[in-house]
Amino acid sequence: MAKPGRKPGSDGEKSRARLLAAAAAEFALSGYHETKISAIVKKAGVSQPAFYLYFESKEAIFQELTDAFREQLFTHVQASLLAPDIQHASLADAIAAGVAGIFSFFHEKPQLTHIGLCLSPEAEAIKEELAKRIQLNLEKEQQMGYFSADIDMSMAAESLVGTLVHFGTTSRLQKEPAERAKEFVQLFLNGLMNREG
């Protein structure tokens, strides 16, 4: 369990932030069981007693990283919900902007993403919750008339999550997040069919 922090901007808060960043790097590199508190404090440039000013244990700092990932991911998913008055011509761009937000988060926080989607004992539950939240967004957007009424949004959400997780946990996100998001939307909106002929 995390201990109460100090005022934002204080040296203590900076040390705590360095510990979190160092822990994310060590967990992502070595895994949970192989990561030692001694490696975290060395990377953070603080003493081992300083670690215990902010965190009760290795489990506590790992849980805080998992919780931070979950909260930030679901904030991006909520932000991706389409507004109710988008013109059809702008629909693909609006969807791509929401997807780009998620891809950007994965791109900017690869260690945290690896912890949340792969290392955490809660990883499967996070993915299930991600699918549920995306399904809710899709069903609302379906009700707004953006998507066909005969599509099973549960299956669509599971497919989207599979692709998002794959890009988020591999080196496949080699293009800029906005560019990759446009390709993602092109695939899911228009599919693989050649419509010219």
Automatic annotation (TrEMBL):
Gene3D superfamilies: Homeodomain-like, Tetracycline Repressor, domain 2. SUPFAM superfamilies: Homeodomain-like, Tetracyclin repressor-like, C-terminal domain. Transmembrane segments: none annotated. Residues 36-55 bind DNA. InterPro entries: Homeodomain-like_sf, HTH-type_TetR-like_transc_reg, HTH_TetR, Tet_transcr_reg_TetR-rel_C_sf. The keyword DNA-binding applies. Keywords: DNA-binding. It comes from the Bacteria. It holds the Pfam family TetR_N. Residues 13-73 form the HTH tetR-type domain. Coiled coil: none annotated. This is Transcriptional regulator, TetR family. It comes from Bacillus badius.
